[in-house]
Design goal:
It is a single chain. This protein is 65% helix and 0% strand. With 381 residues, the chain is mainly alpha-helical.
């Protein structure tokens, strides 16, 4: 590579970095047109605004204080709408002043008191983004929780359209900005319930997972474990589906019974365990039938014996003895169970409109309804 090529590459590298600093911007302007980078409209505006801030004189500083005091005066008179407009103008015209943080916070409160909930929520999101650490942290955390709860409850739904997703966004912002806050467990609990009520079961399980992992001593821990089991149970579509989901649901329900002897959903959990284990036994029998129908009676006997050993307490196991008697003689049970587990058939998941698809929702009574998102979180700090 010759010197000209190297010099050209250096110029290209410099051009690519010209938007990184004020020096870069000046250098960018000194380059030939074909090498100049385009910093973009937003960056140009930010740069111009920064220059204006740095070049403020004494008169500008006086104007800053007067504009801020004028907004404060409107707030004291409880002219909330006018105060909000004044704070918006102040933030726009005088960014990065000593009043900036307070102006952003007061803008949130002015919109809130003017009952402009959407504008207040948007101002709150901007405040959290701009000032994740603030002297108003406690107030902002409580305000964020209250706003999110109201939206998720549907208090601010429109005539034709709902705004509940705005509450979900606020809850997400809250747990991101205040992971150790007093409202964090409640936020995850409400997120999980919102997702569950809207059939978003993977998201619901993730919210309950986080609550259990980070806030295991929370007042919501027992219900979060139970509800996570419900989300897994709801994903079970029938015996042709993945057995792992069934086993995870059973494990969660059993863990719930073991950890919380005084819990209020124990009877329901026991019923669900019985019904899901019955499905697991039916799945093992269906695999045995698959082998038997293809001329592998030994493999069929293996799965039947295994099903009887592991799930003999279920109602479905009652048919196993009759099926075993109909199979050709094979080695004894001890020999069968001592073998390595043969590879089971690859059971494909039936389509939603396939004939004969078994659905757990047809066999299991509807899961105990989660508390409505509008139900107050009792004991909330």
């Amino acid at each position: 590579m010759n010197r000209i090529s190297i010099a050209f590459l250096i110029l290209l590298s410099v051009a690519s970095m010209t938007s990184c600093s004020s020096f870069g911007r000046k250098l960018n302007q000194s380059l030939p047109d074909f090498l100049r980078s385009n910093p973009g409209e937003d960056e140009v505006l930010r740069y111009q605004e920064r220059v204006r801030v740095l070049n403020r004189n004494e008169a500008d500083l006086e104007a800053v204080d007067k504009a801020y005091e004028a907004a404060q005066a409107l707030e004291k008179e409880e002219e909330w709408g006018d105060a909000a407009e004044a704070y918006e103008e102040f933030i726009k015209n005088f960014p990065d002043t000593r009043h900036d943080e307070e102006a952003h916070f007061r803008l949130v409160m002015a919109h809130r008191r003017d009952e402009e909930e959407f504008e207040s929520s948007q101002a709150l999101k901007k405040f959290l983004k701009r000032y994740p650490i603030s002297r108003h942290n406690k107030e902002v955390e409580k305000l964020s929780y209250d706003m999110a709860t109201e939206y998720v409850n549907g208090d601010h739904d429109g005539f034709l359209f709902g705004n509940r997703n705005n509450g979900v966004e606020l809850f997400r912002e809250q747990v991101l900005n205040f992971p150790n806050g007093v409202y964090a467990p409640d936020a995850y609990w409400r997120l999980g319930n919102h997702y569950y009520d809207n059939d978003e079961y993977f998201e619901a399980a993730a919210a309950y997972d986080t609550l259990l992992e980070r806030y295991g001593d929370s007042q919501w821990a027992s219900r979060a474990l139970y509800n996570r089991a419900l989300t897994r149970m709801t994903q079970i579509k029938g015996i042709d589906y993945d057995q792992q989901v069934m086993e995870q649901a059973v494990d969660d329900f059993k863990s719930y019974l073991r950890k919380y002897p005084e819990a209020d959903r124990r009877e329901d959990a026991a019923v669900y365990i019985e019904q899901i284990e019955n499905m697991i036994c039916e799945k093992q029998i269906s695999i045995a039938n698959w082998y038997d129908g293809r001329g592998y009676p030994g493999a069929a006997r293996y799965y039947l014996v295994k099903a009887k050993r592991d799930w003999g307490h279920t109602e479905a196991s009652a048919a196993i003895d009759g099926q075993l008697a109909s199979l050709p003689d094979d080695e004894g049970i001890e020999v069968i169970l001592s073998r390595d587990l043969p590879t089971p058939p690859s059971t494909s998941q039936p389509s939603l409109d396939s004939d004969g698809m078994e659905d757990i929702r047809d066999e299991v009574p509807g899961p105990v309804l989660l508390p409505s998102a509008s139900q107050p979180a009792s004991g909330t700090p």
